[in-house]
Design a protein that fits this description.
The complex is a heterotrimer of chains A (377), B (470) and C (178). Chain A is an alpha+beta fold and 377 residues long. Chain A is 45% helix and 14% strand. Chain A has a 3-stranded antiparallel β-sheet with strand order 1-2-3. Chain A has a 3-stranded antiparallel β-sheet with strand order 6-7-8. Chain A has a two-stranded antiparallel sheet with strand order 4-5. In chain A, α3 packs antiparallel against α4, α4 packs antiparallel against α11 and α6 packs antiparallel against α11. Chain A is globular and about 75 Å long. Chain B is built from 18 helices and no strands. In chain C, a hairpin with an 8-residue loop joins β1 and β2. In chain C, 38% of the residues are buried. The chains are: A alpha+beta (377), B mainly alpha (470), C alpha/beta (178).
C-alpha cells in the first residue's frame, strides 16, 4: 500500500540510490535511479539499454532467413511469440496462406511457451519476495517438462526458431503429442499445488495485497498490455480483441479482473492464464488436423517477401508484441521495428513505485513481468 | 508416498557421518586435553605439573567450543543445502568428495584463499572488527550451555554460572553491534540500511524472545541452565515445553498411584482457597494446568519466532534481503571476513537451537519416562544400563566414555538438530516480510502476546506444583 | 545494405478512407498513402498532427485511444515518424505518417515533429527511442534523451548514412560513460 508519510517538522534529505545494473533482483541488467525520502521512493528513473544488441539494426542488415534465427533472443523466455510476430507481419505483407495444421501447431507451441514463461515468472517472483529457496523451484520442475518437449520439436530448449515465415518447421511425432497430452492432464493439479502454497500464504498476501496499484486509466495511458493491464480491468487480449490465427475457433474467455489491479491481481491473473493456456492446448490437441502443408515458403538463404509494409501483433505472455516491417521486396527488410511489451510496461514503473518503501520496489517490479532483453533489444 | 526416498536416505547418511565426525572429534580432543594429559601430568612429582594439569582442565571447554564451532558450521551449511535441495526437487551439492560430503570444506578453503578486500572509503578498523564482534559472542555465549548439555560433566562444570541463561541471552544480543558496525564501515548505502534494519529488528524481537525465556525461568525458579535441565528430567511430561512441570504428577500418578496426584494438584490449590470445598481445588488446579501448558507451548513458539528474527533467518532476514539490499550488511565483505560472518550466522542458529533444547525440551533428557523404561526392563528381565556398561567397559575405564553424558549428549544432538531442521524447513517455505510489517508483527502481536503469557504463568503457577522448589 | 528505396506499390487509393474522411470533415487535410497490409494509412503535416490526434483520440465514433507504437523510418528522401493507433473499445486501426523532407532539414539540426507525449505517456519512451535511433526531434517532449544507446553515443544508428566506427566500442574516450 502506498504509505502516508508522517508530516513532522523534521527536515530530511533525499537520498539517491542506484539499484542495478548489478543487483541480484533486477532480472538482468536494469538500472533504477531511486530518489528516496527515508525508505520511500519519491522518484524513479529507469535506465535501460545495458542489454542492447541492436536487434532492429541487425534486422535490416541481415537477410530475413538469417534474422529469423536471431529474434528468439529478443525475448528469450517466449521465443515462439517473437518468431510468430515476425512471421505474421511477413505473411501479411507477402499474402501467403498458412495451412490450418501449421496454425494449430503454432497456437499449441505458443501456448506451451506462455505456460513456461509464466512458470518462470512465478518462480522468480517468489524469489523477489524473498522465498529464496523453497517454492521457487517447483515451477521449474514443470517448465523442465515443457522445455524437453520444445527440445524435441524445435531442436532447442529456448531459442526455438520453430515458427518460420510461411509456417512451422517440423511436424510433431505421435509420441510427442501423447507426452503433451499427459502434461496437460497433470498440469492443473500442479497449479492447484502452487496455489495451495502461495495464494493463501499470509506473508505473501501481506506483501502483495494493495501494493503497486495500477489504475485503469494510468495503464491505458502508458500503453501497458498483457496480464498487467488485464489485472487492472481492461480486457484487451489480442487473441480475442484482434483475433488472429485459429484462435476464433478455440473456446476460451479473456482472463481479467474488474477493478484497479494490485500486485496480487497480476499474480492471480497469470495463474489463471496458465490454466487457460492449458485448456487451449487440450483443444488444439483434439482439433489438430492430421494432414496439411507445414511450410508455405521455402526456407533457404533466398527467402524474400513482397514489397510493402505491415504491422502484426501477437499476444505474448507479457502483452502486445508487435512487429512492423517495411519491405522493398529484397531478401532483407528495409526497416524492422519491434513493439515490445516489456518496454511499454516498464515505462509505467516510475508511476507505480511512487511512495512505496524500497522493500516493495522489487515486489512491484517483479509483478509487471519485465524481461530486460525484451526491453533493450 | 515418499518419492525421493533415495535422496532422503543419502542426506540421512550424510548427517550421521558428519555427526560422528564432529562429536567424535570434539570429544576426543576434550578427552586428550582434559583427562589424559592432566592424568599424566598429575602423576608426576612437584607443583609445576599439577599447575599445568589444572590449566589443561580449564582450557578444555574453550577447546571444545573452538573445535566444535567451525566443523559444526560446515556441517550445518552442507545439511542446509542438501535439505533445501530435498524440499525443492533438486539434488544439492554432491560432487566434492563422496556424495558431496566435503563440499563445505572446499568452500571454506576457497573463502580462506580469496582476496580480502577493504573497499575504498571504508573505515578499515571498524570493517575488520565487525566480523570479530559478530562472531566472538557465539563462542563465549555458548560456554554456560556446555555443562547443561553434557549432563553436568565434570570437565565443563567450571563454565557453569548461577545466572547462566542470563549470560547466554546477554551474549547473544551483542552480535547486532557487529552488524551495525559492518554496515556502517562498509561505506555502502545498502550495507548501511542492512545494518540499521538489523538493529531495529534485534531490538524489537529481543523482547518477546527474552520474555518467553523469563516465563520459563519463572517456572523453574532459577537462572542456572544446569538446574533447569535437571529439573526437567524424567520424560516428556516434565519438560518445560508442557507446562513447566505442571503435568509431572500425571505420569507419577500412573507410576506410583493416585496419592501423587493429590500432592501435585490438590494440595497447592487447597492451600490457597482452603479445604472447605472438595471440588474447587481440583477445578482450579486443572484450569491452571491447562493454562500453563498452553502458555508454555505459546512461549516456545514465541521463542522460535524471536530466535529466527534474532539470527536473521527467513522470514525475518531483512538485514540481508537479497532482492532489496543485495546482501545487506555483508555486501562488501569477502574472503575470510565474509567466512567469519557466515560461520557466526550458522553458529548462532545452533546456539539458539540448543537454548531451546535446554530451556524447553528437557536438555539431555530421554522423552520416555524412566519408570516406563524400568517396567520394560523388569518385563524382559535385563538392565540396559548394565549391558551398555559391560559393552563399553574398556572405554569407560579410560574415561573416554561416561554413559550418562553420552546418552544426554545424544538426546541433545537429536533435539537441537530437529530445531535446526525446522528452521531450514521454514527457510524453504516462507517468503520474506517487509520491514514495516515486520515491526508491526513484532510490536503489535508478539510483545503483547508474550506479556500475556508471562502474566498468566505468574498466577497459574500458584495452583500447581511446578519445578519451583523441587 | 544497398540503398534501394522502399518500393512504392503502384496503386494508391485516391479516395480518402474512413479516417481521412473523418479528418476532412473536421477541417484537417490528410493524404492517403498505400494501405499497410489492409490498414488505412494517412500522411499528415507535422503542424496538424496534434490537432488530428486530439480529434481521433477523443471523438466517440472513432476513439483511436491506444498508441501502439511510434516508429522512425529513414526513407529515401524523407524522415518518417510512423504512429500506429488502435482502439481499446473497437477494432479501428490507423497508421499515421508524418514525413519531414530531408532537404528541408538544415545542416547540423534534426528533423522535428511535435511530440504526442502530452496525449499519451506511452509516447514518451517510444519517442525517446525514435530520437535515439533515427534522430527525429520531438518538440514538446518532457525528457528527450537517448534511451537504449549510451547517453554519449554519437550518430543515429538506424539512419541509412550511419557508419559505425570499426572500433568505436573499444574506444574509451575520456569522460565517456561507455
Amino acid at each position: 500500500m502506498a504509505i502516508e508519510l508522517p508530516t513532522t517538522g523534521l527536515k530530511t534529505d533525499e537520498m539517491i540510490i542506484n539499484m542495478g545494473p548489478q543487483h541480484p533482483a533486477t532480472h538482468g541488467v536494469l538500472r533504477l535511479i531511486l530518489t528516496l525520502d527515508g525508505e520511500f521512493v519519491k522518484h524513479t528513473e529507469p535506465v535501460c539499454g545495458h542489454l542492447h544488441r541492436a536487434q532492429e539494426w541487425q534486422g535490416q542488415n541481415r537477410t530475413l532467413f538469417q534474422y529469423q534465427a536471431l529474434i528468439d533472443r529478443v525475448d528469450y523466455l517466449s521465443g515462439m511469440f517473437t518468431s510468430w510476430a515476425m512471421a505474421r507481419a511477413a505473411e501479411l505483407i507477402d499474402g501467403c496462406e498458412i495451412s490450418e495444421r501449421a496454425e494449430f501447431l503454432r497456437v499449441m507451441v505458443a501456448e506451451m511457451n506462455r505456460i513456461s514463461s509464466h512458470l518462470l515468472w512465478l518462480g522468480t517472483y517468489l524469489i523477489d519476495l524473498g522465498a529464496m529457496f523453497g517454492f521457487p523451484f517447483y515451477p521449474f520442475r514443470e517448465r523442465e517438462k515443457l522445455l524437453d518437449l520444445f527440445e524435441e520439436i524445435a531442436g532447442q530448449r529456448m531459442m526455438f526458431n520453430y515458427i518460420r515465415i510461411g509456417g512451422v518447421m517440423r511436424a510433431p511425432k505421435d509420441d510427442w503429442l501423447k507426452r503433451l497430452e499427459a502434461f496437460t492432464e497433470e498440469f492443473p493439479k500442479r497449479v492447484d499445488e502452487y496455489e495451495a502454497i502461495v495464494t493463501e500464504n499470509p506473508i505473501f498476501l501481506k506483501r502483495t495485497k494493495g501494493i503497486g496499484i495500477l489504475k485503469k486509466e494510468v495503464a491505458m495511458d502508458y500503453g501497458v498490455t498483457g496480464p498487467t493491464i488485464r489485472a487492472s480491468g481492461v480486457p484487451i487480449d489480442l487473441r480475442r480483441t484482434k483475433p488472429y490465427s485459429v484462435y476464433p475457433k478455440l473456446k476460451f474467455d479473456v482472463v481479467g479482473m474488474d477493478k484497479d489491479g494490485d500486485t496480487w491481481d497480476r499474480y492471480i491473473c497469470r495463474i489463471r492464464e496458465m490454466r487457460q493456456s492449458n485448456e487451449i492446448i487440450k483443444q488444439c490437441l483434439d482439433m489438430l488436423p492430421k494432414e496439411g502443408e507445414l511450410l508455405a515458403k521455402k526456407q533457404n538463404a533466398g527467402l524474400r517477401i513482397k514489397a510493402g509494409e505491415g504491422f502484426a501483433a501477437v499476444e505474448s505472455p507479457r502483452g502486445t508484441l508487435g512487429c512492423y516491417i517495411i519491405s522493398n521486396g529484397s531478401d532483407r527488410a528495409y526497416r524492422f521495428k519491434w513493439r515490445n511489451p516489456s518496454f511499454c510496461n516498464l515505462s509505467v514503473l516510475p508511476e507505480l513505485l511512487k511512495n512505496h518503501p524500497i522493500a516493495d520496489v522489487m515486489a512491484i517490479f517483479g509483478s509487471i513481468d519485465v524481461i530486460l532483453p525484451d526491453v533493450d533489444r | 508416498m515418499i518419492r525421493n526416498g533415495a535422496e532422503i536416505l543419502k542426506a540421512t547418511m550424510l548427517t550421521g557421518t558428519w555427526w560422528a565426525i564432529i562429536f567424535g572429534l570434539v570429544w576426543i580432543a576434550c578427552w586428550v586435553v582434559g583427562i589424559v594429559l592432566p592424568g599424566l601430568l598429575s602423576g608426576m612429582e612437584g607443583d609445576t605439573p599439577r599447575f599445568w594439569a589444572e590449566i589443561c582442565r580449564a582450557l578444555t571447554p574453550i577447546l571444545a567450543v573452538m573445535v566444535f564451532i567451525p566443523v559444526n558450521a560446515m556441517f550445518m551449511v552442507l545439511i542446509e543445502r542438501r535439505a533445501l535441495a530435498l524440499f525443492t526437487v533438486r539434488k544439492g551439492p554432491n560432487r566434492v568428495g563422496p556424495d558431496g560430503y566435503l563440499q563445505t570444506f572446499a568452500d571454506a578453503l576457497k573463502l580462506l584463499f580469496k582476496e580480502d578486500i577493504t573497499p575504498r572509503g571504508a573505515d578499515a578498523v571498524m570493517f575488520t572488527l565487525a566480523p570479530i564482534i559478530f562472531f566472538a559472542p557465539s563462542i563465549f555465549g555458548a560456554m554456560p550451555l556446555l555443562a547443561a548439555v553434557t549432563n553436568n560433566h565434570e570437565l565443563f562444570q567450571v563454565m557453569n554460572l548461577p545466572t547462566g541463561i542470563f549470560f547466554v541471552l546477554a551474549a547473544s544480543s551483542v552480535p547486532v553491534v557487529g552488524i551495525v558496525m559492518g554496515g556502517w564501515a562498509s561505506n555502502n548505502k545498502y550495507s548501511l540500511v542492512g545494518g540499521l534494519r538489523s538493529a531495529a529488528q534485534a531490538i524489537s524481537y529481543e523482547i518477546p524472545l527474552v520474555l518467553s525465556i523469563v516465563t520459563i525461568c519463572l517456572l523453574a525458579g532459577t537462572l542456572d541452565v544446569v538446574q533447569i535441565a535437571k529439573q526437567q528430567a524424567g520424560g516428556i511430561l516434565n519438560w518445560n515445553l508442557l507446562g513447566g512441570g505442571a503435568l509431572r504428577g500425571l505420569d507419577q500418578a500412573v507410576a506410583s498411584g493416585a496419592d501423587a496426584l493429590k500432592t501435585f494438584y490438590y494440595a497447592p490449590a487447597a492451600a490457597i482457597v482452603g479445604t472447605g470445598s472438595d471440588v474447587l481445588p481440583w477445578i482450579l488446579s486443572s484450569i491452571a494446568t491447562v493454562a500453563l501448558v498452553v502458555c508454555t507451548v505459546t512461549a516456545f513458539c514465541l521463542y522460535l519466532t524471536g530466535a529466527c528474527a534474532e539470527i536473521n533467518r527467513i522470514p525475518f532476514d531483512l538485514p540481508e534481503a537479497e532482492s532489496e539490499l543485495v546482501s545487506g550488511y555483508n555486501t562488501e565483505y569477502s574472503g575470510i571476513k565474509f567466512a567469519i560472518f557466515f560461520l557466526a550466522e550458522f553458529t548462532n542458529l545452533f546456539i539458539v537451537a540448543s537454548i531451546a533444547t535446554v530451556m524447553f525440551l528437557g536438555g539431555g533428557d530421554c522423552p520416555v519416562p524412566a519408570w516406563l523404561g524400568e517396567r520394560v526392563e523388569s518385563m524382559l528381565g535385563i538392565k540396559f544400563s548394565s549391558i551398555v556398561n559391560m559393552a563399553l567397559a574398556p572405554l569407560i575405564s579410560v574415561k573416554l566414555i561416561d554413559p550418562a553424558t553420552m546418552f544426554a549428549a545424544v538426546w541433545v544432538i537429536l533435539k537441537t538438530y530437529t530445531i535446526v531442521f525446522f528452521a531450514i524447513l521454514v527457510r524453504g517455505t516462507l517468503p520474506r516480510f517487509r520491514i514495516d510489517q515486520l515491526m508491526d508483527f513484532g510490536w503489535k502481536r508478539l510483545i503483547p502476546l508474550s506479556l500475556i503469557v508471562f502474566l498468566v504463568v505468574v498466577f497459574a503457577r500458584e495452583f500447581v506444583v511446578c519445578h519451583v522448589g523441587t | 545494405m544497398s540503398e534501394t528505396p522502399a518500393a512504392k506499390p503502384a496503386e494508391t487509393p485516391q479516395e480518402p478512407g474512413q479516417f481521412g474522411q473523418f479528418l476532412k470533415e473536421h477541417g484537417i487535410s490528410s493524404q492517403r498513402l498505400a494501405d499497410s497490409s489492409g490498414v488505412e494509412t494517412i500522411e499528415l503535416e507535422a503542424s496538424q498532427l496534434e490537432a488530428a490526434v486530439k480529434l481521433l483520440r477523443s471523438s466517440p465514433e472513432v476513439k483511436l485511444d491506444y498508441l501502439v507504437s511510434v516508429c522512425g523510418v529513414d526513407s529515401q528522401d524523407t524522415f518518417d515518424s510512423v504512429y500506429h493507433l488502435w482502439s481499446y473499445s473497437n477494432a479501428n486501426e490507423l497508421v499515421i505518417k508524418v514525413r519531414v523532407k530531408k532537404a528541408s532539414v538544415p545542416e547540423g539540426s534534426l528533423p522535428s515533429v511535435p511530440s504526442l507525449s502530452r496525449f499519451w505517456n506511452a509516447a514518451n519512451w517510444h519517442e525517446r527511442e525514435t530520437y535515439d535511433f533515427v534522430g527525429i526531434r520531438y518538440y514538446g517532449h518532457p525528457y528527450l534523451r537517448r534511451i537504449l544507446n549510451p547517453w554519449d553515443w554519437e550518430g543515429y544508428p538506424l539512419r541509412r548514412d550511419y557508419k559505425q566506427l570499426v572500433d568505436a566500442l573499444n574506444d574509451k574516450a575520456p569522460g565517456s560513460f561507455r
